[in-house]
Amino acid sequence: MRLEKCWFCSSTIYPGHGIQFVRNDAKIFCFCRSKCHKNFKMKRNPRKVKWTKAYRRLHGKDMTQDSTFEFERKRNRPERYDRNLAENTLKAIKTIDKVRSERAAKHIERRLKGKKGKERREAAKELEQSIHLVKAPSILQKEPSLTLPTKVKVSQQQTQENQAMEE
């Protein structure tokens, strides 16, 4: 079973799926869905479209350099079948997949760590700029008009009027 990569978004294309576009110079472009094909026809750059792998790699959102990517590369050289080699390869694929997922999780964790620090700095800056909006609890006790009312008194006359309007 031959799995191909989408030219635009780099997702895998399974047999029987997707669209192939052959240009006049005989270059073949494979697309996973019509969304990718339409973006290609509109001459959009995959590195500038936010949902593509190329954008995510370029802007540091996905891992770009890892030794596990070496195993995923396409090889066109035919090799003689060897049962032991095939068995060892299948075992190695499982461990490689496990290592890749752990490294990806670590990469995401490192990426988000910087974001949390940035959010804290922004919150501190905003608080510093608008400290006049924040009132001390002692002032709220002295001036109850600053707090929201907790109970609303309704007279008997108003309730009777409401009931009469409903009828």
TrEMBL record:
Chain segments annotated as coiled-coil in the UniProt record: none
Recorded superkingdom: Eukaryota
Region (Disordered): 111-130
Positions with biased composition (Basic and acidic residues): 119-129
Any one GO cellular component localisation term in the record: nucleolus
Keywords carried by this UniProt record: Nucleus, Ribosome biogenesis
Main localisation: nucleus
SUPFAM superfamilies reported for this sequence: Glucocorticoid receptor-like (DNA-binding domain)
One BP annotation, GO: ribosomal large subunit biogenesis
Pfam families the record matches: Ribosomal_L24e
Compartment annotation: Nucleus
GO MF annotation list: structural constituent of ribosome
Family designation: Belongs to the eukaryotic ribosomal protein eL24 family.
Protein name: TRASH domain-containing protein
